[in-house]
Amino acid sequence: MSRNSSEQRGGGGGDYSLDIINGGDHHEMTDDREFGFSGPLSTNNDNNNNNKNKSKKKKKKEDADDDEEEAYVEITLDIHDDSVAVHSVQAATTGQEDPELALLTKRTLNDINKSSSFGSSRFRTASSRVITHVSQELKRLASNSIKRSSTSTSRRFHRTKSAAAHALKGLKFIATKTTGPSASAAWPSVEKRFDQLTANSHGLLPSSLFGECIGMNKESKEFAGELFRALARRRNLTGDSINKSQLQEFWEQIVDESFDSRLQTFFDMVDRDADGRITEEEVREIISLSASANKLSNIQKQAEEYAAMIMEELDPDNAGYIMVQNLEMLLLQAPNQSVRVTDSRILSQMLSQKLKPTQENNALSRWYENTKYSVMDNWQRVWVMMLWLGIVSGLFAYKFVQYRRKEYAFEVMGYCVCIAKGGAETLKFNMALILLPVCRNTITWLRNRTKLGRVVPFDDNLNFHKVIAVAIVVGVGLHVGAHLTCDFPRILNASEDDYEEYLKPYFGDEQPPNYWWFVKGVEGVTGIIMVVLMAIAFTLATPWFRRNKLNLPKFLKKLTGFNAFWYSHHLFVIVYTLLIVHGIKLYLTKTWYQKTTWMYLAVPVCLYACERLIRALRSSIKAVKILKVAVYPGNVLALHMTKPQGFRYKSGQYMFVNCAAVSPFEWHPFSITSAPGDDYLSVHIRTLGDWTRQLKTVFSEVCQPPTAGKSGLLRADTQVGGNNPSFPKILIDGPYGAPAQDYKKYEVVLLVGLGIGATPMVSIVKDIIGNYMNMKPSSSSSGFRTQKAYYYWVTREQGSFEWFKGILNEVAEMDERGIIELHNYCTSVYEEGDARSALIAMLQSLHHAKNGVDVVSGTRVKSHFAKPNWRQVYKRIALQHPNSRVGVFYCGAPALTKELKQLASDFSHKTSTKFEFHKENF
């Protein structure tokens, strides 16, 4: 038997759930702090009562034989150090144990049984103390508890430690770091801020600065003002300012850990007229205030409707008000959405202990362990990089030795010419190689039609492209630097005899008189132009310029952004042309077959040229027609278009989009959000740069406000036989391979989308559901490997949920087998445990229970608050899928990449579950 564990506080204690089976006595160890065991209602711990209990136990044994169902009762206890309290008592259902939890617990027990003797001694000590407390508490409450559980048809939550502990989580007015034992330590910082804020107001703090003084952010200014007024009313203060001693009184009440104190403070905030009753208007105002603090504009607009719903729930007698007891009941009964049966704290703590890194004292051992894990996680990248570095080093060494042996050059220019020619050889190779990672059609074909994807990390093609670019910069530096600072000065200063003997056949009859002689030649002109153009292209491709991260004057803003990057990269057409010319007009090489530049470039340049030609032909032949346009909150444009004949793609792939009305030359990549089984194509484009901003503008001009029942801020639909709007022409090119398309290789997948990064994940979710809907019920070998998907979408704004509202509802309705777990996170809402989101959480629970719709997302998927605890996410998946390979697919900003990748590595090394991380940044 099991139950969700409550929040643990302090050093020990927890929530215990027992099966009381008359006539049996069996204890099971589950953890060094928590225990699940079953035993007789009257235990044998008290030797003085043994004889008295015999007749009672015999009587109970007979009753159990007559009515087996009445012999079982479930009692859930809260045990904290030296105190025991009954959380709930109810009749237990026999023979219906959760098999999944039983399996996990069994595994946990096996692991713990293998632990050290130290751990066992800790358990025996704790077990003895706990069983004693349980026995005493059960003796006191057994008879009336059983009667109440067998006759009651509805279960009530009582003010137990477990319920109060959960409720307290939702009523913290200040960040956790300032509560509990550290509250007194935090007062000096509050006092310091008070002194700074009241320096010019004679020691009086106005209510407008109260939030800043106690540590709340600017977005919570209104909430802090309401808290100030509630605390002032409790003390009959009528002014708008307080002194330091009054602030200290306020502070002590704010950080008070008792449930009654927090509940009363929250009630006072709602009860504005201080009459001890909360009216519907007061509920509406506090909903509006909480929604404003959490940036939930939709809830703010519907505050009146939600206030009426709360009053209907808590005021069934239509008294026109609710009391503090009603608010307390709502708090105590609000479900804790973050706790699941299969994610009990027992198992979580066990796994956490396993994952604690063992710190090696030996630095060499630490280095070895880190290197080993790094190679295991990145072996594909390692061998590719080693091969590339080996080739580059080999080419440099080959050319270095070759010119070391050429007496005519080495005698005058020395090792300078060896370095220059070695750098030039690596430069030719890398200038050819850098084109291959951007041949997208070729890479897509290789990953789809061959098995190279198992050993070649095609997902890192752009990263490899950037690495090669760095190597090109190094090669240019070696080649140009050695020529300018060493070779040319040596030639200019060579003696007449040396020049006549060694250099005359290569530089002409007359010795070069100055630097200008080298610059004005074909070699010099082409070299200088190439270096300048490459410097421009490389500079504008850096993140600072490409993502507009530099605060430049307005007239220089055109040098930043994606457009500047895109156009500057096309300067390489000139660069490659000049490179071939430069490679033909060499000073020291006159034989044609020794001029190898064109040999390096021939195949890659032709391949890339064919790629661009295919793109142009394919986009012009495969025309698309716009079916629907919608502009959503958060500056997102959704385009639905017809699917060209023969356009086949996989979920997770992307395509390029061109709009001549914005720019006839620019093509931009976007993830495909429709599933392969859909009869249309769709993309969701967020305004992040100049091109996307203009695209949204040209489509918004043909849109209108949506009619009733339609989503979006602006919308336009194509109707059969109707007067359809004139949409701008769209061309598409693709599809192209992306990391997320490989999700079908895994039985379990974790899909993480950050903001607009949810786009490829939405397509995957739809594809999974579509595959299972088309699968015959009796079929067990359909070839579709994915059995479970965890979808996590993290976004800042409530309006973002409008983007995929219909899709999420569709998936939730169609997923009858529970294949997909949908998790929406709204980071603008304060985390669970903050009083600013307490009423939102209560409202969310009520509304979802009554209507099946989440008030935050507007979908059937219940939203979580703040950011996910990614370690807990990985931990739960590892617990539920031991000995499995889990594909982790992330799409979004680079900020989260490092954490998710590191967690995947940690859990892969410390558990039997192997997490394979794939990412796609934008």
From TrEMBL:
Domain named FAD-binding FR-type: residues: 619-742
Gene Ontology, cellular component aspect: plasma membrane
One example GO MF annotation: calcium ion binding
Compositional bias ranges of the Basic and acidic residues kind: 24-35
Subcellular location: Membrane
Signal peptide: none
Superkingdom of source: Eukaryota
Keywords: Calcium, FAD, Flavoprotein, Membrane, Metal-binding, NADP, Oxidoreductase, Peroxidase, Phosphoprotein, Transmembrane, Transmembrane helix
Record has Calcium as a keyword: yes
Topology relative to the membrane: Multi-pass membrane protein
Pfam families: FAD_binding_8 (PF08022), Ferric_reduct (PF01794), NAD_binding_6 (PF08030), NADPH_Ox (PF08414)
Residue intervals of the EF-hand domain: 258-293
PROSITE patterns: EF_HAND_1 (PS00018), EF_HAND_2 (PS50222), FAD_FR (PS51384)
CDD domains the record matches: EFh, NOX_Duox_like_FAD_NADP
Transmembrane segments: 382-401, 524-545, 565-584
Family, similarity comment: Belongs to the RBOH (TC 5.B.1.3) family.
Annotated protein name in UniProt: Respiratory burst oxidase
Species in which this protein is naturally found: Trema orientale
